Amino acid sequence: MTPGDDTVETRELTYFVAVAEELHFGRAARRLGIAQPPLSRAIQQLERRLGVRLLDRDHRTVELTEAGETLLREGQAALAAVSAAVRRTRRAGRHAPSLVLAAKPGGDADLLPEILAAYAATPGAVPVDIVFNALERGAMVRDGRADAALLHAPREDLTGLAVEELLVESQVAVLPRGHRLAGRAELSMADLDGEPLPRWPGAVPEGSFRIAESGQLMHLVALGRAVAVVPQSIRGNLRHDLVGVPVTDAPPTTLVLAWPQDARSRALAAFVRTAAEVARRAGRP
Amino acid sequence: MTPGDDTVETRELTYFVAVAEELHFGRAARRLGIAQPPLSRAIQQLERRLGVRLLDRDHRTVELTEAGETLLREGQAALAAVSAAVRRTRRAGRHAPSLVLAAKPGGDADLLPEILAAYAATPGAVPVDIVFNALERGAMVRDGRADAALLHAPREDLTGLAVEELLVESQVAVLPRGHRLAGRAELSMADLDGEPLPRWPGAVPEGSFRIAESGQLMHLVALGRAVAVVPQSIRGNLRHDLVGVPVTDAPPTTLVLAWPQDARSRALAAFVRTAAEVARRAGRP
DNA sequence: CGGGTGTCATACCGCCAAGGTATCGCCCGT
DNA sequence: ACGGGCGATACCTTGGCGGTATGACACCCG
């Protein structure tokens, strides 16, 4: 045995993560585009190499051991790091420097146009591509698909990212115009008890689909199937049949600009500086 | 061409990192334990896959392109993440929970004994293994060889780590007892101009060896071959033939406890809490 | 209770690609 | 002009990855 072998191929990690997420060899194999037997063998070999049982499988069901849960978490992070390395290398090679910013539609508190204009006016500014994505903007920064993202703390996880706070916002409940609470000047969270979930995009109401786009959520609200508690800045973009009512005791939300904490790019640094300045200026009109 | 292939095997990354660090295919191949031709081919293939030139090699010399520098940095991080995943998985499998703490001999400001005692008294405390290492305690935390480390900011790089500040210290110059400055009550950095390097462990004086152990450095100081500027807490552990003189304008050093920022371990959290408390208590005696 | 079905493991095979050896091509120092 | 050093190329061998077929076992059903 050679226990000093402290590495594993990304292929093996990918395979394990697929099985660990699916908890089903057949489905995982299909997702990976290979047949099931090689997958079984690969997992066995991985377990032998690590000297650790990763999955408890009786003939009916597959579940993660403690070691397996560790490898799922850590393996996902490691794979993201590898993808990030590849993507950033490709970007560095194509000599057309640019920035990719991940934002959520309607989630920029209307700061984005001004930030982009101010940055574009900066000497040495580089083209900025905006990528809209509601659910995985943090992951996009971590794995190199984006150079920076607008995120909402503490709703979204910021581990592994450097951040600049742009704006602290209170929250409002979005309600159909005809709702029993729609006329109130303000609410407390307790007033919303018993209202249907989800409260925000990304939350997964049981048995329902994943809300991937805020328009879907707003539609659900309009139908009375959901109540959303969101940063107050979206009040400007509400559909005509919805109203936003301040929720006094909802925790305030912070709009942050996040980027990989080891980023070394001159352009990114300038963009961050500009964004912070614009936000500061907007803070005291 | 299949540009959607966003991953790379760890083997390829390891190979590239070796070449990028050595800037020499032959040496890199020897270090990797393979022959040179397969290594050349592997790098070429990697470049083809990424669609990017990584190394500028004329027949005499090898140097990194910009993309190559990116891949070196990012690849090292990704490989550390993979190693960390493997090690943490192995640890999680062997069901004997414990903590590994990386410290530098003499670099704990004498806080360690008290921290260990206080933690051991905590309910649910777990055995703590101390690993002494002067040069790569940060890397040990990042790649999973240690759960936490005592580091000195800003001397050591903290990116990617969560930290708790334990102690802010001013610095002293370590001098031979007979040195012309040894009698002074205090110094400024300017007084040390012209003194021989290195100033601290890990610094590499030109043409000399790497100082891997503080005893070596102290020996050099005693021989008049070096001057060290170090946190004042080491004054208690100086050899009889050395003295420490405060350097008034040296930037203060902060002793921090650092751990992987995505750590989820209950034991680690308790240890950090205890350490912070001990340090706070020690701060106001 | 016996056949059917779903699931993971095993057996066996073919082939690609990683690694080895030998050699080339090129630049350099002398 | 020549030998030495270095990376690239040519060619071969083989380990291991992936595929198909099948086994072993548990559960469901009529």
Nutshell version of this structure?
Chain A is of the alpha+beta class. Chain A has helices at 10-22, 25-32, 36-50, 66-93, 112-120, 137-142, 214-222, 266-283; strands at residues 55-58, 61-64, 99-103, 128-132, 148-153, 161-169, 171-176, 228-231, 242-246, 253-260.
Features:
10 strands, D-Maltodextrin-Binding Protein, domain 2, Arc Repressor Mutant, subunit A, homodimer, 8 helices, alpha+beta, 285 residues, DNA-binding
Overall pLDDT confidence of chain A: 85
Structural class of chain A: alpha+beta
Task: Output the CATH homologous superfamily of the largest domain in chain A.
Answer: Periplasmic binding protein-like II
CATH class category label of the largest domain in chain A:
Alpha Beta
Rg for CA atoms of chain A: 23 Å
CATH topology of the largest domain in chain A: D-Maltodextrin-Binding Protein, domain 2
Proper CATH architecture of the largest domain in chain A:
3-Layer(aba) Sandwich
How much of the sequence of chain A is in beta strands?
15-25%
How would you describe the oligomerization state of the chains in this entry? Answer: homodimer
Q: Kindly state the percentage of residues in helix of chain A.
A: 25-40%
Outline the low-pLDDT stretches of chain A.
199-210
Question: In DSSP terms, counting alpha (H) and pi (I) runs of 4 or more, how many helices of chain A?
Answer: 8
Largest interface: A-B, 45 and 46 residues
Q: Domains counted in the coordinates of chain A: how many? A: 3
Largest beta-sheet characterization of chain A? 5 strands, mixed
Number of strands of chain A: 10
So what's the overall shape of chain A?
flat
